[in-house]
Specification:
- The chain is α/β, with parallel strands linked by helices.
- Helices cover 42% and strands 16% of the residues.
- The chain has 2 domains: 12-279, 3-Layer(aba) Sandwich (Rossmann fold); 296-366, Winged helix-like DNA-binding domain superfamily/Winged helix DNA-binding domain (Arc Repressor Mutant, subunit A, Orthogonal Bundle).
């Protein structure tokens, strides 16, 4: 899909993507600003592939949603710096016009900057040399050109910086074994990882290839466990094939927790209260990435096994276990209540001394030792 046709039709997937980014921007900005004390403190939103601002039918895309969010908050209006870039000059001009038409846009202390550059090494080097203010960084390329580990790393190096990028799975799946774009694939995965990945993919089925590709990219982004990575899958209009993944990267568990809650609510389906972490227009149940396919029935057994013989607060159980799973805090509380009612764990204070049908963050849970057969 070329960038000239990308904004012709606001498909459901694009609307969901924009909603996820805008909701996270609001939550992220509130958390960051709560830790800032000086009036000179700033936050930033950077979008390097911003597009024209609106789809052909007038539907707002992500840049306009972010700016409208900022205008609603007096503190954010004083602190937010926004930079929007698109190498297509027509898109840049259209975006400037759309921004100028936002009601009360003049209330932002810092006028949004709209640039017209091709994303490449020069931008990466600029970010690497800068100390960025807390920044939410969004990268939504048409394919893969300009998207690289260096680019993501150049922003995430600084405090308070999180990254979201749209990962065109079909283009990258085809590109990994295409010598003509080898340089771009090496930049995205890292050369050593890409070289090891290519021969593995040749004998794999389509579903195995997807799992392998997104797993390897996630491992590269995790930076040896220093970061949290969360993928959200988008199906095509027929609901049978993956089109994209929206991938979130943060150095902080709080950001991961917030985004997990947002993605769970935007999922098109759930099983037993556990969200699918995908948007599927046809709402087909398909195998999900990583371990994001474990129904809640499995959670009780996992907790009894992993925490056997231990006593921990509910919040500690949740934080130690939820990373890399589809479960959110509500799922843990529901399961622990059920285990308590069945007499399989001991809670302090017990159910009779708590408000009915609640399981607070600080409730202490004692798991039995593993039985020896």
């Amino acid at each position: 899909m070329s960038n000239s046709t990308f904004f012709d039709d606001p498909r459901e997937q694009s609307t969901v993507k924009a909603a996820i980014v805008a909701k996270y921007f609001w939550a992220w900005a509130k958390v960051i600003m709560s830790s800032q004390n000086r009036p000179t403190d700033r936050i930033a939103y950077i979008d390097l592939f911003a597009g024209p601002g609106r789809y052909d039918d007038g539907t707002k895309s992500t840049p306009l949603l972010v700016l409208e969010t900022a205008i609603q908050d007096p503190k954010m209006r004083e602190r937010l710096i926004t930079i929007f870039n698109d190498k297509n000059e027509n898109n840049s001009r259209s975006l400037e016009t759309a921004i100028a038409q936002i009601p009360d846009i003049e209330q932002l202390r810092f006028k949004p900057r709209v640039q017209n550059h091709e994303v490449g090494d020069h931008i990466v080097k600029q970010f690497e040399a800068m100390r960025l203010v807390p920044t939410l960084f969004f990268v939504d390329p048409w394919g893969y050109k300009g998207l690289s580990l260096r680019l993501v790393n150049s922003v995430l190096k600084d405090w308070g910086c999180d990254c979201l990028f749209f990962f065109n799975y079909n283009r990258i799946n085809m590109g990994l074994n295409n010598e003509a774009v080898e340089e771009h694939m090496n930049a995205l995965f890292g050369q050593q990882r890409a070289d090891q990945l290519r021969p593995r993919l040749l004998a794999q089925s389509p579903s195995e290839r997807e799992l392998t590709i997104v797993e390897e990219l996630s491992q590269a982004l995790k930076d040896n466990g220093k970061r949290f990575v969360l993928p959200f899958r988008f199906r095509n209009d027929r609901g049978k094939r993956t089109s994209h993944h929206l991938i979130f990267v943060s150095k902080h568990f709080k950001g991961y927790e917030i985004m997990k809650g947002i993605m769970a609510k935007e999922s098109s389906s759930n099983s037993q209260g556990v969200s699918s972490f995908e948007y599927n227009p046809a709402d087909k149940r398909q195998p999900l990435l990583f371990d994001l396919s474990r129904p809640i029935d499995d959670l009780a057994d996992m907790l009894l096994n992993i925490f056997a013989g231990q006593t921990l607060a509910m919040q500690d159980i949740y934080q130690k276990h939820n990373i890399g799973t589809p479960y959110i805090a509500r799922n843990y509380k529901e399961v622990l209540q059920k285990l308590e009612s069945e007499g399989r764990i001991t809670a302090n204070p017990p159910a009779g001394l708590r408000k009915k049908n609640t399981f607070g963050d600080q409730v202490s849970v004692t798991f039995p030792e593993k039985s020896v057969s």
